[in-house]
From TrEMBL:
One GO cellular component, as annotated: periplasmic space
Pfam families: SBP_bac_8
Entry keyword set: Periplasm, Signal, Transport
PANTHER family assigned to the protein according to its UniProt record, in alphabetical order: SPERMIDINE/PUTRESCINE-BINDING PERIPLASMIC PROTEIN, SPERMIDINE_PUTRESCINE-BINDING PERIPLASMIC PROTEIN
Cellular compartments annotated: Periplasm
Source organism, top-level taxon: Bacteria
Name this protein carries in UniProt: Bacterial extracellular solute-binding protein
GO molecular function: polyamine binding
GO process annotations (BP): polyamine transport
KW Transmembrane (keyword) present: no
Species in which this protein is naturally found: Azoarcus sp. (strain BH72)
Length: 386
């Protein structure tokens, strides 16, 4: 699979483009008896056709726009086009590669730039706190009836409900395990600590995500609460991340980027932020890889569709969420992306007992600021042990 994140504007409008229409419509060949029409008649017919096409193009240009911000693989072109045609709207899709970028986009103008977005349950909390997410009424999304019982019971899923109101509809999920080159390991790596193994220096890939990496370092240190790092433990976690920075080849952002790096740079092991999605892409690229859940446990995300507080048309945003829970979208997640959806059991990761669901962290903004310092190579990171 080769799919690059992109900003897609009005897929349906392309069908009405006049770039393939001859400037002189009177010269167009006409089928059957129409070829016997006089030149004047053909000219009049051409004028009518031009008027109709112009009106259709104007309608497309003036159509209502649904603004979506999401992750690679969540809004494939054909799925978007189907929605556009059904609802007679245009869809603008913006893609993100990190939670930090997603936050920046939504927070820029109080959520006014987007109508609907995909976010994991742990991150969703700060959107609710910041007034950037609006409640969602599951009753207005009929396809929730297609979901597995554990995903329909939103009250049992941490982070979806606040003060009796639902703020997210589960869409897809994955564990974040370890992907390794089978030719480089006599036996599969069984610990997250392999990312720090200096025997693989320069052959390790990690994800460029501030919040996840602090939790990962805390886990590698054996701290009991990786999502709530205390002040006394923070210096050791920072030092652990500085050591990770020295050991990795680089920190990737997008799944396609990780596949290219893995193939071209002879990577030995990678922290799989996108989980089974990356596994499928690597195998489709012909790379002999394995995928394991580390003994410490694998963090797992549950991504949901949420409605922006600045949504222009709530009904249209709800229709989008409903569309993304239908059979075609659910199948696309499973077959194209290798991801688990919320409507069937296919692609659910093994070793479910090792899954650790992401939780809100102690201070997401501080983690982001510290991570920027670590990533830049700053030797005097705030809060680092002396």
């Amino acid at each position: 699979m080769s799919r690059r994140p992109r900003r897609e504007l009005g897929h349906g409008a392309d069908l009405l483009s006049n770039k393939h229409i001859p400037s002189d419509l009177s010269s167009m060949p006409l089928p059957g008896n129409a070829a016997l029409l006089s030149r004047a008649s053909r000219t009049r017919l051409g004028a009518v056709l031009a008027l109709v096409i112009g009106l259709l193009a104007a309608t497309a240009a003036n159509a209502e726009i649904l603004r979506v911000v999401t992750w690679p693989g969540y809004a494939d072109r054909d799925l978007v086009q189907t929605f556009e045609l059904k609802h007679r709207v245009r869809v603008e899709v913006s893609y993100v590669g990190t939670d930090d970028v997603l936050w920046d986009k939504l927070a820029a103008r109080g959520g006014a730039d987007f109508d609907v977005f995909a976010v994991n349950t742990a991150e969703l909390q700060r959107y609710i706190d910041g007034g950037l997410a609006a409640p969602v009424d599951p009753a207005r999304i009929p396809n929730t009836a297609r979901q597995l019982p554990r995903f329909r019971d939103v009250g049992a899923i941490a982070g979806l409900v606040r003060d009796g109101k639902v703020y997210g509809i589960p869409y897809t999920w994955s564990a974040m395990g370890l992907i390794y080159d089978r030719q480089r390991f006599a036996s599969p790596p069984d610990s997250i600590k392999v990312l720090w193994d200096t025997g693989f220096r320069g052959q390790v890939l990690a994800f460029n995500g501030s919040s996840h990496n602090f939790s990962l370092a805390a886990q590698a240190l054996g701290l009991p609460a990786p999502f709530a790092i205390g002040e006394t433990d923070m210096p050791a976690v920072i030092d652990k991340l500085l050591a990770l920075r020295r050991n990795v080849l680089t920190f990737y952002t997008l799944p396609e980027e990780s596949v290219a790096l893995f193939r071209e740079q002879r990577v030995a092991v990678m922290f799989a932020n996108y989980g089974s999605q990356q596994v499928q892409q690597l195998r489709e690229a012909g790379i002999n890889i394995g995928y394991v859940m580390p003994r410490e446990g694998a963090f797992a995300w549950l991504d949901c569709w949420a409605i922006s507080a600045g949504a222009r048309n709530r009904r249209l945003a709800e229709a989008w969420i409903n569309h993304m829970l239908d059979h075609a979208a659910s199948r696309a997640l499973r077959e194209r992306q290798g991801l688990a959806n919320t409507t069937d059991e296919a692609n659910a990761p093994a070793a479910a007992d090792r899954i650790i669901w992401l939780q809100p962290v102690e201070d997401v903004h501080r983690r982001a600021a510290l991570w920027d310092q670590i990533l830049s190579g700053d030797r005097r990171v705030s809060g680092r042990a002396p």
